[in-house]
Amino acid sequence: MKRLIVTAALATLVASPAFAQSYPGVPDEGFYLGAGIGQSKLDNDTLDWLGSIGANTDDKDTAYKVFAGYQFNPNFAVEASYLDFGDYTASASDGADSANIKLGVDGFGFALVGKLPIDGGFSVFGKLGLIAWDASLSGTATIDGVTYRDTAGDSGTDPFYGAGVEYVIDQIMVRAEFERYDLSDSGEDFTIDMISASVGYRF
Predict the structure, then answer these.
(1) What is the reported pTM?
(2) Which segment of 66-70, 129-133, 151-155, 196-200 scores lowest on mean pLDDT?
(3) How many CB atoms sit inside 10 A of residue 59's CB?
(4) Ramachandran sector of residue 123 (left: φ over 0; alpha: ψ -120 to 50; beta: rest)
(5) 95 contacts 57 by C-beta, under 8 angstroms
(6) Of 60, 81, 54, 106, which is closest to residue 175 (Cα–Cα)?
(7) Bridge partners of residue 192, in order along the sequence
(8) Domains of the chain by range and CATH?
């Protein structure tokens, strides 16, 4: 699945100039703005291990994004975005003792977007980019009646890619897309998949 998505994104970016065409009511170039909402899912070995030993884990949350881009022609654009992936949690209890942790991730992305127009305002697209992310981890534990709290944070820059479909009519843009963010911190991998629906406006 991962190889298929990367291949589709690369093929779209490379091959799109050969399929350049435009449709009435669909701007060939210019700025656009949009916002989207969807669901994110975290894949991480530590969270999986906590679940395997009996902790209650939640690796999904509502995610949202806002984005702005510039369309150079019907087949190529650059795009910047802000994304909030939500929070992922794990908790456990044993009598009066308990512990819980929460991980939140957000970031700013920049991507190259290649599009293949299909018909009447419909197109498929692929994107390749980088995300500058921030992560915050907070934890609380109550042991023998004593409560302990701690927080930590980290940041980094890592790649992401995605693919989707788009429909534009009268400068209104509607998208459905899948994106994968491959984050790495201190040798540990955090893969976030995001499925979202977006609406935007083409100026």
Answers:
(1) 0.81
(2) 151-155
(3) 17
(4) beta
(5) no
(6) 81
(7) 42, 181
(8) 2-19+43-202 (2.40.160.20)
